[in-house]
């Protein structure tokens, strides 16, 4: 399977999935706007971003991912990344709001994503990609666990939710290539750093403020999935 060349995805497929993404995003928006994911002690103000960003983001992501993966693996790969995009948008919103990545979203996403990637490998015969995804997920999970332990010793806000999410990031990107995993990881820290510096410059926060890292992990992942990359392996 050649990952560096984009598939010839029919335009109608992209349009249909973008519209479907908008519809699914609207359903998700109605669930998120209730704030039902908040715990009893999470009573702060809602995120500043308008809630309409949810269906818009879902439509854009589903369209982009449909265009990116399209007929690869006999059309079996696209559903895996559409499902991941759904979870990513929900997690990004929740983490931006309450600085928490709910296990009720991250843990079920593991068997869902792994199962869909396995179906893609079954359709294409590319079992090396599945093994690479599993390895990338495990390695990234271990790396983030070490970072979380160090952060706990230093009194930082880097938590176990980010560790759980890291495994998903490794699965999603590792299936494409190890390059994608590296790019996703680098982009997450780069974007989070730029955001943190921007808050300080605009005097909207200080150096000791905790910021939600999950959204930047997910943005970095989606960048790595969509952008054409030369695979290392």
Automatic annotation (TrEMBL):
Q: Name one GO molecular function term.
A: aspartic-type endopeptidase activity
Please provide, in alphabetical order, the Gene Ontology terms of the cellular component aspect for this entry. Answer: plasma membrane
Q: What is this protein called?
A: Leader peptidase (Prepilin peptidase)/N-methyltransferase
Organism of origin:
Humibacillus xanthopallidus
Q: Which InterPro entries match?
A: Prepilin_IV_endopep_pep, Prepilin_peptidase/N-MTase
Prepilin type IV endopeptidase peptidase domain location is 84-196
- Family annotation (Pfam families): Peptidase_A24
**Which controlled-vocabulary keywords does the entry list?**
Membrane, Methyltransferase, Transferase, Transmembrane, Transmembrane helix
